[in-house]
Design brief:
Shape: globular
Distance between the termini: 36 Å
Order of helices and strands: HEHHEHHHH
Number of helices: 7
Helix content: 55-70%
Length: 249
Amino acid sequence: MDLFSWYLFGWGVVAFVSLILLLNISAPYGRFNRSGWGPQIDNRIAWIIMELVSPLTLIGTYLAYERKASSLVIVFIMLWGIHYVNRSLIFPFRTKTDGKKMPLLIAIFACCFNSVNGFTNGYWFAVYADYSVEWFWDIRFLIGFVLFVFGFFVNVQSDNILFKLRNPGEKEYKIPFGGFYKWVSSPNYMAEIIEWLGFAIMTWSSAAFVFFLWTVANLLPRAISSHRWYKSKFNNYPTDRKALIPKIL
């Protein structure tokens, strides 16, 4: 293993530790925001900054270290960018978060997290990636691409359902219905995990696989906490819904 491989291994260990911590402590943003985490900033501004860091870091790293251009790598970077353009420039302006805040500390942590993952994947693409044009027809690319597109579709669909829950001026939480909300409380988290699993398979990259582990570490505990919150807040919450995986978890 070279130095970068050890770096990825260490980053993966940190993901496992974070998973354990987040299963016991709900990150204080969104419905779980609470005092005691220092100064707070506008939720929309925080989302834009901390999510936009990822594609900018990935592209900057790739351009800084790139050894030879690859059409496949460009496709992978574009897919990464499509996800984060939605997350950083579309999602924040569609969600009804006027007046909501987020701890500055959480936004800083998220910026660091996205910077590291942007760097590791950009560096892997620039230095280690070696795809031939035949990779477009490799079973790993085809399966991964289908998973990524499916995950992105369900992610956007689930967000759209949430956006339509409240009328203008309403701030109360409601029970979402439709789409994959029929089976799980957090289909948007489920979909994002599927997206990055597909990306890891499609790229067959150790950096992408570690990022997938981080996605699970962040979103699995969040989905479990959200499921518990829904059940405690609404007496009529559907009893057959699971937190993240239909019929299982």
